């Protein structure tokens, strides 16, 4: 499968999503690894089968094995961290913020790809998962690494569209 296959499966009411998938795939503000790694990390974060298969197929020859693993690892670790850190941020009792997480997060220190790429993918997943604390943390690291606001925004735009496409695909599948 590919993005074109995915677009062809979207209903007409989701035409804007089709157009956004096309324009984001052609986006030039991010290099290919950052862009397609974001697509893959977002697809793993949402987990909807057709969306995931199409995006995995699309990036097959666009990303190295290390980049694919890094994008998947970003989705994996952020799936855990976003829940944990969202809890510590939202809980009324503030002592949770001072307790050690006691969760393994080794991949963050050694993601197997450029740190900025991993941070960008982690930011996209954190945006999907709604963890403001993680979004702030990753956005700060990306700024330190020299990424522009436009590059960071491009990653979140990809995440937003992949999330919306997956929601439509999931809803349509439920009705089928």
From TrEMBL:
Antioxidant protein with alkyl hydroperoxidase activity. Required for the reduction of the AhpC active site cysteine residues and for the regeneration of the AhpC enzyme activity. Disulfide bonds join 131-134. Residues 96-175 form the Carboxymuconolactone decarboxylase-like domain. It comes from the Bacteria. This is Alkyl hydroperoxide reductase AhpD. GO terms for molecular function: disulfide oxidoreductase activity; hydroperoxide reductase activity; peroxiredoxin activity. Keywords: Antioxidant, Disulfide bond, Oxidoreductase, Peroxidase, Redox-active center. It comes from Marinicauda algicola. Belongs to the AhpD family. It catalyses: N(6)-[(R)-dihydrolipoyl]-L-lysyl-[lipoyl-carrier protein] + a hydroperoxide = N(6)-[(R)-lipoyl]-L-lysyl-[lipoyl-carrier protein] + an alcohol + H2O. Its EC number is 1.11.1.28. GO terms for biological process: cell redox homeostasis; response to oxidative stress. The active site is at residues 131, 134.
């Amino acid at each position: 499968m590919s993005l074109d296959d995915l677009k062809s499966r979207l209903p007409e009411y989701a035409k804007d999503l089709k157009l956004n998938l096309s324009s984001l795939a052609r986006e030039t503000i991010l290099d290919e690894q950052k862009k397609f790694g974001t697509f893959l990390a977002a697809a793993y974060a949402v987990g909807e089968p057709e969306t995931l298969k199409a995006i995995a197929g699309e990036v097959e020859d666009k990303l190295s094995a290390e980049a694919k693993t890094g994008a998947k690892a970003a989705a994996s670790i952020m799936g855990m961290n976003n829940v944990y850190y969202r809890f510590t941020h939202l809980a009324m009792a503030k002592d949770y913020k001072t307790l050690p997480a006691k969760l393994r997060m080794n991949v963050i220190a050694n993601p197997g790809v450029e740190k900025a790429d991993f941070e960008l993918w982690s930011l996209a997943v954190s945006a999907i998962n709604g963890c403001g604390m993680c979004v702030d943390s990753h956005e700060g690291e990306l700024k330190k690494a020299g990424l522009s606001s436009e590059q960071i925004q491009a990653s979140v735009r990809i995440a937003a569209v992949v999330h919306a496409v997956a929601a439509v695909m999931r809803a349509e599948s439920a009705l089928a």
